[in-house]
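Ops channel
N.P.: pipeline sanity check, posting one input/output pair.
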């Protein structure tokens, strides 16, 4: 379980995360939603110790995150950032190998290779494993980075806008895979999503942020409601139930 308590972050005197407290439920998908500038990516960065907080605390399984050594933390949680730059020319397989670094320190064992192969297969990248990243489409590269995170095999997985650059087919594929990681393997998955219908259809819980503050958190039924979405997005968003799922018609005229 990951818990943020009264977390605050400022840049140049501007508060971008404002005393946010949220508890991530284990073995569930939690999606962070909200408009641009809501503080979603910043909060996730703090919860993964990529960014320093100005106030508050982050607990993992009841222990202050600051007490974990970096390598031990990397065995507990993994993160896919919103933008991923690689300065050396790598194949898909070489990139996914990096996911095993906390365990292998660069010397891959048979078990490490098994995790790498599983992640590549999970992400439907077997035919591309020997291709260089700069030869791939944006969507293929995104899937390769997600495979690297899966190979890290942590109980807690943070993904900041993982559907970036993905078409509909691969967006659905990714969300189904994440759902399977939770339901079959008991992983804890935390996402930043812009498409609230993906959040509605695949999440267990939703956290809504706006202007750096927590608006509301709860189950899909509690969150995907016109009155809640109005608070978050300043838009009238009708919600319809289709095949038992709450679908938001935010593109209506």
């Amino acid at each position: 379980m990951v818990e943020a308590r009264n977390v605050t972050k400022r840049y140049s005197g501007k508060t971008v995360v404002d005393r946010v407290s949220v508890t991530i439920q284990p073995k569930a998908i939690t999606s962070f939603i909200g408009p641009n500038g809501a503080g979603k990516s910043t909060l996730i960065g703090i919860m993964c110790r990529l960014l320093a907080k100005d106030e508050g605390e982050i607990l993992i399984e009841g222990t202050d995150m600051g007490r974990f050594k970096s390598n031990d933390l990397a065995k507990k949680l993994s993160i896919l950032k919103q933008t991923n730059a690689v300065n050396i020319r790598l194949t898909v397989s070489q990139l996914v190998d990096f996911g095993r670094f906390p365990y292998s320190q660069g010397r891959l064992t048979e078990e490490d290779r098994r995790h790498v192969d599983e992640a590549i297969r999970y992400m439907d990248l077997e035919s591309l494993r020997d291709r260089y990243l700069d030869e791939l489409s944006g969507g293929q590269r995104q899937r390769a980075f997600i495979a690297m995170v899966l190979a890290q095999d942590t109980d807690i997985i943070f993904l900041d806008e993982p559907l970036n650059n993905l078409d509909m087919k691969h967006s659905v594929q990714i969300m189904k895979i994440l759902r399977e990681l939770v339901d079959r393997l008991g992983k804890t998955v935390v996402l930043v999503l812009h498409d609230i219908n993906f959040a509605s259809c695949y999440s267990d819980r939703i956290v809504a942020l706006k202007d750096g503050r927590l608006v509301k958190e709860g189950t899909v039924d509690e969150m995907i409601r016109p009155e809640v979405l109005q608070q978050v997005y300043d838009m009238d968003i009708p919600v319809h139930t289709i095949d038992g799922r709450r679908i938001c018609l935010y593109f209506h005229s």
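N.P.: looks fine end to end. The radius of gyration is 18 Å.
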